[in-house]
């Protein structure tokens, strides 16, 4: 865009002006006739319309063109220029003009001004159509630039002219430049200069009231007669800089103007030609080295839109437009193949393993314990009691629960309400989903996963057991109840088998409700004997089993010892003391990250997407890019919370909340596995598994469970039954697999592939029964 | 489906003209039409004609076309049947050998010509044209976050919609997100029921879930129906039955259909019988496994010995494009029928029970008396396996 400026004493706007391009808009201010000096801008905005802007030297009178508002200017925002300019250049003016490729409709032709010097013929002002032989000023400028570039390449010019050149140096340069002659190829030795665009053109046609109009100082201070008429280039009249000039020269210009205001500078100092001399062009050229402000903005925009990650803002002064062009080309090539990248969040490159070792001594180890047992064994009440007695839940809350529970006639459920929080759970008195709570003792931190006992909710119990280090098996010792839980379809057995098959080795058996039996030792011993036998067959080692008599309702032998003499035959540890002896299992923290998502939710205003889960293997730190398999959307870890405290990193075994950026909640599903992008899991559609059958298996439909994951699948083939002792094949292609046998089977997933890999522990269920548990081969 | 005309020769070849009336008839047609058969049906074909000046014009012409079937494609969701083949009878627009895909339409006759109409095919025709009242049921199986809205007709189970939503779990101190999500979940199911199930025509609408979800859903549905004054739902109130099942996956329908509440209502329907038969088979497998056999070879041997009490065959086997294979299964069915003692059930492969049977190879048999080693010859190549008594395989 080239501006044509003219400062002249006129009495009327020439009538030719309106003719010069047919449909132009000329807005005349009624005050123009009385004004001494006028400045014209002619913008060729579209080929069909030329807008003439008439500005008056008087600070109060100005005219704006309607078209000016259509192309509002905000170049200042891209130029890192100080604020004093911001109010002068309308914003958005250059928004659709990338530096490398000015759109055709924004191209303007530079038209030499009609110099209305006395004695000269009054020609037409306006576009090149009237002077067909001439190239446009833009072309001239471009030519000059390319020449300057060539010069520069030849080392003729110095490359040091940062944009922040001081006013003085610029003035020097300008003054040097002044006497130089117009280059030969410049068609019109244009005495053009720039004036400030009437302010606020981008926002409103009239400047907002109260806003102080930046003075077109130039015009005021310089009088025409002072202009020597030696050469045409020298008669360049002065005017205040346009938005264009401002965007090109930035602060220097303003400083210049200030200088002018102080009348320090000679009027001619600020003359600069739009079609400058070669030298001047070379100087001006230096402003064009490196990316243009537009390019910077475009690059930034494209990055923020996630369109581009390869292009870096070219900072080097030596970089030319071609290199920018290259960068843009690279960007275009990269675009289709590159996935949108989530926003970059600084990754501190913490050596997590080392950090973990360092902090080991300082921190209490966190252990997850899953509470299992038959329905109504008192799991939730026992845990509610534990939390209450260890001070996690305050007295008031418990009182409130007690009152509410009494209201609906379930006063004995008050403690369970600490964990059973949904309306359904409370009214029905049944735990439906895992409740997670943490408490701390002097010796350790514990996270309780209170599992539902009802057989319908075993999928939820599996989700809890998958995160557990050890298990607390709660047994209802009242007559008939233990037996009910312990029979073939009871959940005491099923749960114990499930936790064992999911890798839990340590089990604490809490023999509950003994207060109802007056702490009957015989009953305790009977249960202990039966359970020991069963747990041994289930694969627990006897050193990893312990039995504790207790009562959840009264709280005896849970946190506090029972009253003296109440249980004379028991002198062992309380439940909580026993918990403290259980150590979390060592985890492979240096391996590739794996974490099954147990929950996806909105973590708050600042964290719209939060996932939680327990890291199974590996480590994660803030800034990591992750992927939730089987989805393929990437996300960046924005923040980590370990046990509800913000952390920089987390390792296997931690219960974490990951705040994510760059992903929608819809792309994350409960049961997905979080991996690092460099070591992702490959989801499986069909796989072979080595399983231990609990029920008879034939090729049939099954539910596949892995933590929170619950999918449907089909056993396609019974590959072989294996010997339990040494794992050798006893029979190939068995017709069915009986309960208790070890076998290899093929499983086909019915729906989408599942995030499983070799070694993943799975549980197979059918018709409400756990039919098998095993490992993916 | 109505039988319009049947013309069978002594050698078993002949043509049958049928008039399909409802979407399910497309399923029957799918089971009848084989690769190699001829099919005559009305079609629309674009005819391009070239004038003497070389300009071309195209027009759509309605005509009856006879094709030799190359490929049969059934879309159970839409109830549409697309049959791809080559023109067998020339007319003034189309030459022999040109390809055409016929889309069978409801209420338009089509004629199937076969070189051999076997008993199964004729059985399908008979069954398809059985005017007995059809019992259709709607079923929603759900668990937290997953619901499958299905329509079960006599011969088909069509999954109308699968709803899979992420429901935030309950967290300490914050259950509102969970409850909100559950509400939305119920709402989605309710809308899906309204949209996808022809409630007025259904005999029963089953709501099945583990736990209390189904009951909550039922409550929600009627609360909403009262709010919106939805007469269809309110008048259908007695049709809604809640059933317990263990999961929300589609295969839980097996469990649903065998539950006493459902059996009481639907005892005489074909799919209830099929489900019961499959259930009996699996039960037999667990209790007396020598009386329950599956797989073509094993069952064939059992038939030879005249031991089969109930033969379960999936109709997917009769859709085989391999003629000899098809004959083999037809032979099996006919043998059992001929023996007089055995019962044959042909299960629809798109019912859940049929899918289960397909998992076993499509054919299974409950025997009258135990037989061992029916699979022995399979093991011969495997040195160590053959020595074992196969019956013991599962009991170790």
TrEMBL record, chain A:
Pfam families: GTP-eEF1A_C, GTP_EFTU, GTP_EFTU_D2. It is found in: Cytoplasm. Residues 180-204 have a biased composition (Low complexity). NCBIfam families: small_GTP (TIGR00231). It catalyses: GTP + H2O = GDP + phosphate + H(+). Belongs to the TRAFAC class translation factor GTPase superfamily. Classic translation factor GTPase family. EF-Tu/EF-1A subfamily. It comes from the Eukaryota. GO terms for molecular function: GTP binding; GTPase activity. Residues 364-587 form the Tr-type G domain. InterPro entries: EFTu-like_2 (IPR004161), G_TR_CS (IPR031157), GTP-eEF1A_C (IPR054696), P-loop_NTPase (IPR027417), Small_GTP-bd (IPR005225), T_Tr_GTP-bd_dom (IPR000795), TRAFAC_GTPase_members (IPR050100), Transl_B-barrel_sf (IPR009000). Gene3D superfamilies: P-loop containing nucleotide triphosphate hydrolases, Translation factors. This is Elongation factor 1 alpha-like protein. Residues 151-208, 302-321, 327-346 are annotated as: Disordered. One of its GO terms (cellular component) is cytosol. Component of the Dom34-Hbs1 complex, also named Pelota-HBS1L complex, composed of dom34 and hbs1. Keywords: Cytoplasm, GTP-binding, Hydrolase, Nucleotide-binding, Protein biosynthesis. Residues 156-168 have a biased composition (Polar residues). It comes from Orbilia brochopaga. CDD domains: EF1_alpha, HBS1-like_II.
UniProtKB/TrEMBL annotation, chain B:
Residues 375-396 are annotated as: Disordered. It holds the Pfam family Pelota_N. Coiled coil: none annotated. It is found in: Cytoplasm. Residues 1-130 form the eRF1/Pelota-like N-terminal domain. One of its GO terms (cellular component) is cytoplasm. Residues 375-385 have a biased composition (Acidic residues). One of its GO terms (molecular function) is metal ion binding. Gene3D superfamilies: 3.30.1330.30, eRF1 domain 2, Pelota, domain A. InterPro entries: eFR1_2_sf, eRF1_2, eRF1_3, eRF1_Pelota-like_N, Pelota/DOM34_N, Pelota_N, Ribosomal_eL30-like_sf, TF_pelota. Keywords: Cell cycle, Cell division, Cytoplasm, Meiosis, Metal-binding, Mitosis. Its main location: cytoplasm. It comes from the Eukaryota. GO terms for biological process: cell division; meiotic cell cycle; nonfunctional rRNA decay; nuclear-transcribed mRNA catabolic process, no-go decay; nuclear-transcribed mRNA catabolic process, non-stop decay; ribosome disassembly; RNA surveillance; translation. Its cofactor is a divalent metal cation. Component of the Dom34-Hbs1 complex, a complex that recognizes stalled ribosomes and triggers the No-Go Decay (NGD) pathway. In the Dom34-Hbs1 complex, dom34 recognizes ribosomes stalled at the 3' end of an mRNA and engages stalled ribosomes by destabilizing mRNA in the mRNA channel. Following ribosome-binding, the Dom34-Hbs1 complex promotes the disassembly of stalled ribosomes, followed by degradation of damaged mRNAs as part of the NGD pathway. Belongs to the eukaryotic release factor 1 family. Pelota subfamily. NCBIfam families: pelota. This is Protein DOM34 homolog.
């Amino acid at each position: 865009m080239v501006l044509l400026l003219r400062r002249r004493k006129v009495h009327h706007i020439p009538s030719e002006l309106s003719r010069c391009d047919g449909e132009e808009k000329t807005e005349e201010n009624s005050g123009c006739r009385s004004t001494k000096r006028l400045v014209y801008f002619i913008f060729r905005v579209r080929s069909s319309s030329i807008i003439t802007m008439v500005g008056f030297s008087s600070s109060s009178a100005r005219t704006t063109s309607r078209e000016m508002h259509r192309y509002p200017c905000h170049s200042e925002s891209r130029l890192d220029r100080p604020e004093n300019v911001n109010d002068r250049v309308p914003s958005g003016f250059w928004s659709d003009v990338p530096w490398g490729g000015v759109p055709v409709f924004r191209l303007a032709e530079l038209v030499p001004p009609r110099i209305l010097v006395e004695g000269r013929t009054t020609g037409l002002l306006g576009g090149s159509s009237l002077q067909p032989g001439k190239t446009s000023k833009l072309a001239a400028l471009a030519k000059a630039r390319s020449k300057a570039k060539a010069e520069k390449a030849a080392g003729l010019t110095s490359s040091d002219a940062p944009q922040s050149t001081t006013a003085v140096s610029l003035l020097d340069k300008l003054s040097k430049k002044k006497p130089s002659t117009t280059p030969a190829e410049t068609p019109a030795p244009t005495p053009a200069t720039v004036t400030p665009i009437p302010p606020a053109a981008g926002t409103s046609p009239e400047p907002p009231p109260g806003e102080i109009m930046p003075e077109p100082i130039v015009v005021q201070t310089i009088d025409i007669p002072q202009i020597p008429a030696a050469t045409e280039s020298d008669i360049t009249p002065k005017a205040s800089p346009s938005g264009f000039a401002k965007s090109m020269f930035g602060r220097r210009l303003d400083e210049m103007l200030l200088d002018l205001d102080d009348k320090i500078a000679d009027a001619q100092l600020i003359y600069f030609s739009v079609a400058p001399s070669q030298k001047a062009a070379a100087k001006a050229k230096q402003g064009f080295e490196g990316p243009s402000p537009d390019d910077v903005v475009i690059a930034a925009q494209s990055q923020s839109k996630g369109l581009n990650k390869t292009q870096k803002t070219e900072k080097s002064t030596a970089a030319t437009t071609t290199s920018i062009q290259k960068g843009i080309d690279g960007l275009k090539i990269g675009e289709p193949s590159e996935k949108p990248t989530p926003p970059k969040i600084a990754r501190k490159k913490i050596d997590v393993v080392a950090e973990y070792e360092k902090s080991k001594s300082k921190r209490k180890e966190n252990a997850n314990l899953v509470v299992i047992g038959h329905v109504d064994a008192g799991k939730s009440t026992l845990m509610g009691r534990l939390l209450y007695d260890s001070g996690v839940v305050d007295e008031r809350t418990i009182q409130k629960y007690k009152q509410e529970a009494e209201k609906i006639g379930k006063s004995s459920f008050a403690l369970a309400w600490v964990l059973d929080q949904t309306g359904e759970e409370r009214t029905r008195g049944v735990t439906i989903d895992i409740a997670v709570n943490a408490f701390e003792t002097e010796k350790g931190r514990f996270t309780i996963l209170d599992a539902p006992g009802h057989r319908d909710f075993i999928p939820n119990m599996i989700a809890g057991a998958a995160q557990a280090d050890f298990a607390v098996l709660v047994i209802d010792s009242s007559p008939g109840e233990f037996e009910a839980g312990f029979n073939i379809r009871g959940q005491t057995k099923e749960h114990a088998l499930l936790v064992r098959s999911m890798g839990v080795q340590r089990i604490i058996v809490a023999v509950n409700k003994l207060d109802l039996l007056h702490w009957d030792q015989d009953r305790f011993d009977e249960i202990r004997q039966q359970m020991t036998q069963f747990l041994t067959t289930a694969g627990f080692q006897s050193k990893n089993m312990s039995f504790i008599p207790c009562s959840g309702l009264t709280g005896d032998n849970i946190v506090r010892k029972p009253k003296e003499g109440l249980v004379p035959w028991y002198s062992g540890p309380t439940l909580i003391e026993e918990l403290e002896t259980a150590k979390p299992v060592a985890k492979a923290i240096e391996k590739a990250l794996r974490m099954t998502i147990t929950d996806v939710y909105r973590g708050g205003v600042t964290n719209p997407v939060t996932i939680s889960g327990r890291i199974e293997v590996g480590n994660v730190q803030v800034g990591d890019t992750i992927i939730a398999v089987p989805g393929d959307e990437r996300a960046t870890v924005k923040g980590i919370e370990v046990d509800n405290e913000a952390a920089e990193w987390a390792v296997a075994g931690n219960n974490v909340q990951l705040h994510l950026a760059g992903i929608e909640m819809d792309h994350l599903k409960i049961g997905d596995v979080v991996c690092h992008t460099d070591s992702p899991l490959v989801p499986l559609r069909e796989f072979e598994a080595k399983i231990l059958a609990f029920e008879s298996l034939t090729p049939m439909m099954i539910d596949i469970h892995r933590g929170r994951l619950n999918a449907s699948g089909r056993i396609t083939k019974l590959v072989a039954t294996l010997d339990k002792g040494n794992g050798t094949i006893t029979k190939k292609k068995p017709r069915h697999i009986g309960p208790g046998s070890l076998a290899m089977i093929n499983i086909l997933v019915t729906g989408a592939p599942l995030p499983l890999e070799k070694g993943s522990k799975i549980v197979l269920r059918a018709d409400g029964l756990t039919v098998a548990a095993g490992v993916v081969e | 489906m109505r039988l319009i005309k049947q013309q069978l020769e002594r050698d078993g070849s002949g043509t049958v003209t049928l008039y399909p009336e409802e979407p399910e008839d497309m399923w029957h047609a799918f089971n009848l039409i084989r690769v190699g058969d001829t099919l005559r049906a009305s079609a629309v074909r674009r005819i391009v004609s070239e004038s003497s000046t070389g300009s071309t014009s195209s027009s759509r012409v309605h005509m009856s076309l006879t094709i030799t079937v190359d490929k049969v494609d059934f879309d159970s969701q839409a109830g549409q049947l697309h049959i791809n083949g080559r023109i067998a009878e020339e007319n003034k627009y189309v030459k022999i050998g040109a390809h055409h895909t016929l889309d069978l339409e409801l209420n338009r006759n089509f004629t199937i010509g076969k070189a051999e109409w076997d008993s199964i095919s004729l059985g399908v025709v008979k069954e398809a044209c059985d005017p007995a009242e059809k019992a259709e049921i709607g079923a929603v199986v759900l668990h937290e976050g997953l619901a499958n809205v299905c329509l079960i007709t006599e011969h088909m189970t069509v999954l109308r919609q699968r709803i899979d939503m992420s429901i935030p779990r309950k967290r300490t101190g914050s259950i509102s997100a969970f409850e909100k999500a559950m509400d939305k979940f119920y709402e989605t199911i309710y809308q899906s029921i309204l949209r996808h199930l022809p409630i007025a025509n259904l005999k029963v609408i089953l709501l099945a879930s583990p736990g209390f979800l189904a009951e909550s859903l039922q409550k929600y549905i009627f609360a909403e129906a009262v709010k919106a004054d939805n007469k269809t739902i309110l008048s259908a109130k007695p049709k809604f039955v809640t059933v317990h099942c263990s999961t929300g996956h589609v295969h839980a329908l097996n469990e649903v259909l065998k539950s006493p509440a459902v059996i009481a209502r639907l005892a005489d329907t074909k799919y209830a019988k099929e489900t019961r038969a499959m259930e009996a088979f699996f039960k037999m497998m667990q209790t007396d496994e020598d009386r329950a056999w599956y797989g073509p070879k094993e069952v064939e041997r059992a038939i030879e010995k005249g031991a089969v009490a109930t033969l379960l065959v999936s109709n997917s086997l009769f859709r085989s494009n391999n003629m000899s294979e098809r004959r083999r299964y037809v032979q099996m069915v006919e043998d059992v029928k001929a023996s007089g003692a055995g019962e044959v059930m042909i299960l629809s492969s798109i019912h859940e029970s049929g899918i289960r049977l397909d998992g076993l190879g499509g054919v299974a048999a409950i025997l009258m008396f135990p037989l061992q080693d029916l699979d022995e010859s399979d093991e011969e190549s495997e040195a160590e396996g053959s020595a074992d008594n196969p019956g013991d395989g599962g009991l170790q």
